[in-house]
Amino acid sequence: MNHISFFLNYPDRRGAGLYFATTPLYSEFKRLGKDVSIVSTYEVEDDTKDKEIWLKDLISIRIPTLNKLFKKYRASPTILHLHGMWGVHSLVVFLLSYLSNIKVVISPHGMLDSWAVKQSSFKKKIARTLYEDRLWKRATCFHALNENESLEIKSLVPNAKIVIIPNGVNLPSYTRSRINETRKLLFLGRIDNKKGINELLAAWELKHNCYNNIELHIAGSGDKEIEIKIRFLHDKGILTYHGAVYGDEKSALYKSCDAFILPSFSEGLPMTVLEAMSFGMIPFISQQCNMPEVLEKKLGIDVSPCESSIINAFEKLASFTDGYMLSLSPEIKSYVGVNYSWDAIAYQHLDNYKKIAKG
To answer: Phi first, then psi: what are they for 272, rounded to 5°?
Structure first.
């Protein structure tokens, strides 16, 4: 089996969902005894147990490091697996693949969808001109999280070879046995305009007095201006803000809340939705979350990133009975367990690597 090098921009929680999508995959590879390492633009800053996950195999991108990597990759068969786009790590993968003719797998994690590409478009045009477009053409394979992302990749790289493998989740032992009398609706994730958080806040500020049986809970960090707005609404008693939560604190929040909302403008396959569903929470998600089968199977509720649609979501949650929510919860959890377990997903990636290695 070839050596696998994951390339990331941030090797810690600053990488948000991308970090939480790659950490368990890396851990599963290590559990299976595979030869895998991590190369990142930045060093680990989190002073938590997560630091230990990467530390042994982490290599930070520095000029002396690049020469060592170049020699290492030329000396032994290696596949470079790029996670995310538009960073220094993308440039480094391009240079290494160009100089060493190494095989490359690219996982955009939603960063090539049309909405994302339009953000900071001038900088991205420069990156495309200098190295991204050439890297995309050199890639052995693109990894898409779903069919929608595959189509987005094809629109930019028509000749790309694409394999579709979703993100995964570790299924908790928790089983939901009760529903709060006052429904707790949770938004958990990076505080960023792309997540539809501004529309959610506007809708809730406008209509919160109409729903005495719903509480809105927000968890996460990110855009400072939006955080100020959230703290203002928290101080007025309009919602509850938990700040950034991780580990046991995050699990406790999933357990204590009843439903999850992500009215996003742009996603790959959101980890927080999978995590919430693994705790049996009803997801209110936009089409851009790229989980159409969840909506088709009526395991979740469609909500668009606009005030009127979000208000309609409040209306639906307010109307749900305890019995309905408790009956749906195990179906939601079972669906995630069958379709998104990390061990099965790790084997799909390994199978893809083997095919790439054989040429």
So the answer is: -65, -35
Q: What is the pLDDT of residues 9-25, one digit of tens each?
A: 776 667 677 777 888 88
Packed helices 197-207 and 224-235: angle between N→C axes, nearest 10 degrees: 20
Confidence class of residue 58 from pLDDT cuts 50, 70 and 90? low
In this prediction, residue 342 carries a pLDDT of 87
SS (H, E, C) the chain: CCEEEEEECCCCHHHHHHHHHHHHHHHHHHHCCCCEEEEECCCCCCCCCHHHHHHCCEEECCHHHHHHHHHHHHHCCEEEEEECCCCHHHHHHHHHHHHHCCEEEEECCCCCCHHHHHCCHHHHHHHHHHHHHHHHHHCCEEEECCHHHHHHHHHHCCCCCEEECCCCECCCCCCCCCCCCCEEEEEECCECHHHCHHHHHHHHHHHHHHCCCEEEEEECCECHHHHHHHHHHHHCCCCEECCCCCHHHHHHHHHHCCEEEECCCCCCCCHHHHHHHHCCCEEEECHHHCCHHHHHCCCCEECCCCHHHHHHHHHHHHHCCHHHHHHHHHHHHHHHHHHCEHHHHHHHHHHHHHHHHHC
Domain locations in the chain? 3-168+341-358, 183-339
76-91 confidence digits (pLDDT tens): 668 889 998 888 888 8
Evaluate whether the domain defined by 183-339 bears CATH number 3.40.50.2000: yes
Fold of 3-168+341-358: Rossmann fold (3.40.50)
Report residue 257's pLDDT band, with 50, 70 and 90 as the boundaries: very high
Rounded distance between C-alpha atoms, residue 158 and residue 92, angstroms: 23
Residues 179-191 have a mean pLDDT of: 95
3-168+341-358 and 183-339 agree in CATH topology? yes
Q: Is the pLDDT of residue 241 over 60?
A: yes
